[in-house]
Amino acid sequence: MNTKLTLSLEKTVIENAKSYAKKTGRSLSELVESYFKNLTEKSEIADDIHPKVKKLIGRITLPPDFDEEKVKEEHYREKYGF
């Protein structure tokens, strides 16, 4: 069941959000709902993450072919001389 929500935001934020929604083919409501879902799901998982790292969540976009395990391996090899 959908419920209405009234928000007060800066005009430029709303305009930019509407523009982004249009470019991505989504409604503003979808974006807000998705953000809230993502925010609440991550907060349950991320309770033990350092606050400085939490600030980075959602700000960094990795390429689709990014290999986390390979990067970790290279890091440990450089750090510990493996």
TrEMBL record:
- InterPro entries in alphabetical order: DUF6364
Q: What is this protein called?
A: Antitoxin
One family name in Pfam for this protein: DUF6364
Domain of life per record: Bacteria
Q: What is the lineage of its organism?
A: Bacteria, Pseudomonadati, Bacteroidota, Flavobacteriia, Flavobacteriales
